[in-house]
Amino acid sequence: MLPIRQRLYEVIFEADTKIGKFFDLSLLIVILLSILFVMLESVPSIENKYHDILKIAEWIITIIFSIEYIVRIWIVRHPRKYIFSFYGMIDLLSVLPSYLALVFAGTQGLMVIRALRLLRVFRILKLNRYLKESAVIIRALRESRYKISVFLFGVLTLVIIIGTVMYLVEGAEHGFTSIPRGIYWAVVTLTTVGYGDISPETSVGQFLASMVMIIGYAIIAVPTGIVTAELTKHSQKETSSRVCPECLTEGHNHDAKYCNECGTKLN
Amino acid sequence: MLPIRQRLYEVIFEADTKIGKFFDLSLLIVILLSILFVMLESVPSIENKYHDILKIAEWIITIIFSIEYIVRIWIVRHPRKYIFSFYGMIDLLSVLPSYLALVFAGTQGLMVIRALRLLRVFRILKLNRYLKESAVIIRALRESRYKISVFLFGVLTLVIIIGTVMYLVEGAEHGFTSIPRGIYWAVVTLTTVGYGDISPETSVGQFLASMVMIIGYAIIAVPTGIVTAELTKHSQKETSSRVCPECLTEGHNHDAKYCNECGTKLN
Amino acid sequence: MLPIRQRLYEVIFEADTKIGKFFDLSLLIVILLSILFVMLESVPSIENKYHDILKIAEWIITIIFSIEYIVRIWIVRHPRKYIFSFYGMIDLLSVLPSYLALVFAGTQGLMVIRALRLLRVFRILKLNRYLKESAVIIRALRESRYKISVFLFGVLTLVIIIGTVMYLVEGAEHGFTSIPRGIYWAVVTLTTVGYGDISPETSVGQFLASMVMIIGYAIIAVPTGIVTAELTKHSQKETSSRVCPECLTEGHNHDAKYCNECGTKLN
Amino acid sequence: MLPIRQRLYEVIFEADTKIGKFFDLSLLIVILLSILFVMLESVPSIENKYHDILKIAEWIITIIFSIEYIVRIWIVRHPRKYIFSFYGMIDLLSVLPSYLALVFAGTQGLMVIRALRLLRVFRILKLNRYLKESAVIIRALRESRYKISVFLFGVLTLVIIIGTVMYLVEGAEHGFTSIPRGIYWAVVTLTTVGYGDISPETSVGQFLASMVMIIGYAIIAVPTGIVTAELTKHSQKETSSRVCPECLTEGHNHDAKYCNECGTKLN
After folding, report:
1. Left, alpha or beta for D106 (phi > 0: left; psi -120 to 50: alpha)?
2. Predicted local distance difference test score (pLDDT) of residue D65
3. Using a CB-CB distance cutoff of 8 angstroms, which residues of chain B are in contact with residue A161?
4. Which among A181, B6, B91, D118 would be 20 to 30 A from D18, CA to CA?
5. Is residue D258 helix, strand or coil?
6. Rounded to a whole number, what is the distance in Å from the CA of A191 to chain D's nearest CA?
7. For every one of its 267 residues, what pLDDT tens digit does chain D have, with 9 covering 90 and above?
8. Which of C192, C194, C224 sits opposite A224 (nearest CB)?
C-alpha cells in the first residue's frame, strides 16, 4: 500500500484525526452549498440574473465530487463493492447529472438526482455521536414495523371505502370527480392536512366528513402509541445493564454505586 | 368426505401448505386488481377509453369470485353458518353487484358494495403473523374503549357548544349558515383539519377560533395518552414468557416466584 | 317525608332501580331531542317548512323540563343549595330561554343558552360506569395542569412574537392587516389547523412559516408527553392494590390468585 | 448599603414578602397592558381613532419601565453583569424603541422589539412554583435534544427531496414555481398544516401527496414518542422521595433497600 493512499484513506475515512474532521466538515459545507445552488437554479428570477455564476459553481462542485469519487475508488480495498454499495451509487449520482446535461439538452429531471446529493450528508453524520441516537429511533421503528404495517393497511382500507362513499355522496359537481380523487380527499382529511381544494358541500357529505375527521383524530393515537411504547421500553432497558456481584440483582440505575438489594459495592 | 373436497379444503383454508400459500397470494392479487378496476372505472377519461376492457375484466373477476363462493359453500362443514357469517356476507356482496347490474340499469350505488371486496383481504392476512400484531392493537383499543368513549362524548359536547356560539358570532354572511354548519366548522377546526371552506372573519370569531384551536391542540394529547398507556402496559406484560409447570398459565411477571393461578413455585 | 316525595326521589336520583334507569334513559332522549330541535331550527330551509312543529316540540320539551325542575326543588333536602349548584343553574337555563322569548322578541342569543342543555347529559352519565373512566382522565389532566399551563403560556408567548414578526414581514397587502391577525395566523399555523384564509406569500414569510410549522410539529409532542406520562403512571398504579396476607407484598396483578413472592393464596 | 436600596431590593427581587408579591403582580399587569397596546396600535381602525390615547399610554409605560431599569442598575451588586445579562438586555430593549422613535421616523420594525417585552414575564414567573414544572419539561427536551435533532434532520432531508420531486411533477403552472416553493409545500403537507394555497392538481402529484401525508402521519409519532419516553422516565424517577440517612442522597427507587451512593441501609 502506497503511503499517499494510506494518508488519503485516513483523511477520507477516519473521523477522529484532526485532518479527517476538517475533511468531513469541508465536504459537509460543499454538499450543502451544492443543494443550495440546485434550489436557487430553480427560482426563475435568480436563474435569469445569476445564470453564469450558478453554472460555474455547479461545475466546480461537480469536479470536486468527481475527484473525490475517483480517489475513493482508488483507495478502498474492494472498489467493486464500493461502487455498487448504497453510498457508492449516491456518489456516482452526485456527479453524473452534470456530465449528462452536456450530452442531452433540456434535462430538467436531472435536478431530482442532483438533490439526492443530500443523502451524502448521512455518511458524514454516521461517523459521530448522532449515530447512537438515530440507532435508538431506527430500532424502535424497526421493532414496531409489523404493528405499523397493520395500522397503515387498516388506514388504507378505511381510506378506500371512505373515498368511494364520498364519491357517491358528493359526486363530480363538488370536486369528487372519481374514486381515486375521493381517496385523495379521504387521505387529506384523515391525516388532518385539510387543503380545502376539495371539500364536501352537501349536508350528508359534511356529516360523513365530520365523522371521518373524528376517526382520524382518534386513530392518530395508534402510531404514536406504538412508537412511544417501543421507545419507552428501550429507554427503560437502557438503564439496566449492571449486575450485583453479591446477590446478582440486575436493573441498577446508571449512576448507582451500591446495590439496591444487599448494599454491596458495584463496580 | 370426498377426496376432492378434502383437497379443496386444504387449498382454500390452509395457509401453511405450498398450494395454500399460492392460493392465498393469487386471491390477494385478484382482490387488489378488482379494487383497482373499480377505481379506474370511476375515472371518466379512462372509463370512456377502456370501457369494454374494464367490463370484461369485471366479469372475469366476478366469475372467479362466484366459483370460489360456491366452492366454499360446498366444502365447509356448516354451509348455513358460513353464509351468514361476516366473511360469508362479504363474499356474497363481492359478486352480487355485477349480477344486479344486469337487471337494474344505472346503479352507481353498487360501486361502494364492490369496494367492500377490499375487506376480503383481511381474511387472507388473518392467516399470517400480522394477526398477532393487530391483536395487540385491537386489544389496546378495546381495553381503552370506555376512556375513548368518554373522550369522544366530551369532544361532541364541546363541538356542539362551540358550533352554536360561532353560528351566533359569525352568522350566515360568513358561511356559518346554521348550527349544524357551525358544528361542522368546529369539528374541522378542533381536529386541526382546517379546510378553510368556512373560516371566521370577525375579530371576535377569530379570537374564539384561536382558543378552540389551542384547546384542540391540548386535547389531542388525551386519546394518544390513553392508547399509549394501554400499549405500554401490554408491551411490559408481554416480556414475561415463562409458563407454570403445573397449570401451564403463561404471562407471569418477570419477578414472579410463584404462579398467579395455582401457587406452584416457578423456576 | 311524604311517600310520594320519597318515590319521586328514587325515580329521579337513583340509577340502580329499574324505574330510575328508565327515567334516566327517557331524560337522555328528551335532552338529545331538544338539542336536535335547536339545531334544526337554525337551518333556514327546515325552519321555514316546519316552523310550527318545531315551536310545539320546543314547548313540550320546555314544559317537561319545567316540571322536572320544580319536582327537583320540591324533593331535594336543601332546595337553595340545589338552585345555586352547577346543575341547578343548568336546569334553570334549560327552561328560561323559552319563557324569555315570550317577553322579548328576536332573541337569537338565547339559542346558545338552549344548547347548554347538553350539559345536563353529564348528570345522567355521572351515575354509571363512565364515571370511573372519566375520573382517570380528569385526574391525569388535573395533575398535569401546571405542566400544561407552562406549556400553554410558552405557546402564547411564541404565538405573539411570531405574529408580530409575520405582520412586519408580510404586511397588510398579504392579509396580515394587524398584529392580532398575525397572531391568529400564528395560532392557525402552529396548531397545524392551516385554513389558508391567510397564508404567507413572500419568500421570507414562507421560510419563516416553514420554521413555525416544524416547531409546531415538534412541540405538539409536549402536551402529549405530559398527559401520557401521567396516564401511564396511573395505569401502572391501577394494577397494584391487593396486599399478600403472608409476606405483605403489594403490586399483584388484578387477576392474580396466588402471591408472586411466597405462593400464599390471595383473597 | 443604604436602607432605601435594601428596601427596594426586597421589593424588586424578593417574591415571598407581601410587597414583593404586589410589585410582581403590578409589573405583570403593566407588561401585559403594554403588549395589548402594541397590538391595538397595529389595528388601523383603532389606531386612527385612539392614536393619542395609545401614544400617551405607551409613554407612561415607557417611563415606568425606564425608572424600573435605572433602579435595577442602581441596586444590583454587579450592575455591569446585570446590563449584559439576558434579562438586562430585554429590559433595555423594552424602553429603547420608544426613545428611538423620537429620533427616527417611520420605524415600524421597532414594534417587534416592543413585543419582546413579553419575555419579561418569564422573570416574574421564574419566582413561583411554575419554575419546577417547566424545569421538568425543559430537562426532558434537553435530554432528548440529540434524538430530536436527528429527527429534524431526517425531516429536512425528506422535505427537500419531496419538494424537488413535486416541483418536477407538478411544475410552475400548478403553483410549484421553484424548488424552495416545493419545499414550502412539502413542509406545509408533512406537518399536516395544509393551507391549500399550493396543492397538487395532477393525478401523479395527488398520489405522491397522499403518500407524503401518510408518511407525515406516521412520523409525527416519533417526536411524541421521544418526549413521552423521556417524561415517563422522569415521572417514574420522580416518585422516589426517600432520603438516605447517611449521605442525604435523594431519588432512590421505590424498591431500593440500600442507598445507591454509600450503601447504607434505607428505612
Report:
1. left
2. 92
3. 112, 115-116, 118
4. D118
5. strand
6. 6
7. 557 888 888 777 776 778 888 888 888 899 889 889 888 888 888 888 998 998 899 899 999 999 999 998 888 888 888 888 888 888 888 888 888 877 776 556 677 778 888 888 777 766 455 666 677 777 877 877 777 877 888 888 889 989 988 988 888 888 898 889 999 999 999 988 888 888 898 889 999 999 999 888 777 778 888 888 887 776 654 444 455 666 655 555 555 666 666 666 665
8. C224
Residue C42 and residue B147: Cβ atoms within 8 Å?
Answer: no
CA distance D228 to chain B (A): 9
Site from D195, D226, D239, D240 to mutate, C interface, most C CB atoms within 10 angstroms: D195
Q: Is 0.90 exceeded by the ipTM? A: no
Query: Of A126, A63, A116, A64, nearest to A94 (Cα)?
Result: A116
Q: Largest Cα–Cα distance in chain B?
A: 78
- Is the dihedral angle over the CA atoms B250, B255, B256, B257 positive or is it negative? positive
Are the C-beta atoms of A77 and A85 separated by less than 8 Å? no
Q: Rounded mean pLDDT of A61-69?
A: 91
> Whole-model pTM?
0.81
Q: Which of C144, C120, C165 is nearest to C27 (CA)?
A: C120
Q: At what angle do helices D18-42 and C145-170 cross, to 10 degrees?
A: 30
Measured between CA atoms, how close is B134 to chain C, in angstroms? 21
Chain C segment 228-267 residues within 8 A of B by beta carbon are 228, 230-232, 234-236, 239, 252-253, 255-265
Q: What is the percentage of chain C residues whose pLDDT exceeds 90?
A: 14
Q: Hey, how many other C-beta atoms are within 10 angstroms of the C-beta on C20?
A: 17
Residues of chain D contacting residue A180, judged by C-beta atoms under 8 Å apart = 203, 206-207
Q: Print burial letters for B73-86: b (CB count within 10 Å at least 16), e (below 16).
A: eebbeeeeebeeee
Is the pLDDT score of B241 beyond 60?
no
8 Å CB contact between D116 and D38? no
Task: Check CB contact of D44 with chain B, cutoff 8 Å.
Answer: no
Q: How far is CA A143 from the centre of its chain?
A: 18
Interface touch D178/A44, C-beta < 8 Å: yes
Chain D contact probe: residue of A36, A193, A252, A261 with most D CBs at under 10 A: A193
Residue in C47, C26, C56 with CA at minimum distance from that of residue C120: C26
pLDDT at A238: 47
With contact defined as 3+ CB pairs under 8 Å, the chains touching C are A, B, D
Strand partners, B265: B258
- Residue C63: how many CB atoms within 10 A of its CB? 12
Look at residue D148 in the predicted model and tell me its pLDDT. Answer: 80
| Residue C25 in grid coordinates | 334513559
Class of residue D75 by CB neighbours under 10 A (exposed 0-12, middle 13-18, buried 19+)? buried
Residues 117-146 of A with CB under 8 A from D: 118-119, 121-122, 125, 129-130, 133-134, 136-137, 140-141
Residues of chain A with Cβ-Cβ distance to D218 below 8 Å are 148, 152, 223
3-state secondary structure (DSSP) of residue B231: helix
Residues lower than pLDDT 70 in chain C: 1-2, 15, 105-109, 125-133, 234-267
Q: Which of residues 12-41 of A touch B (CB under 8 A)?
A: none
Q: Confirm if D238 and D250 have CB atoms less than 8 A apart.
A: no
Nearest alpha-carbon partner for B212 in B149, B164, B146:
B164
List, for residues C32-84, the tens digit of each pLDDT value.
898 898 888 888 888 889 989 988 998 999 999 999 999 988 888 888 888 88
- The counts of H helices and E strands in chain C are 12, 0
Contact pairs from chain B to chain C, CB under 8 Å? 180
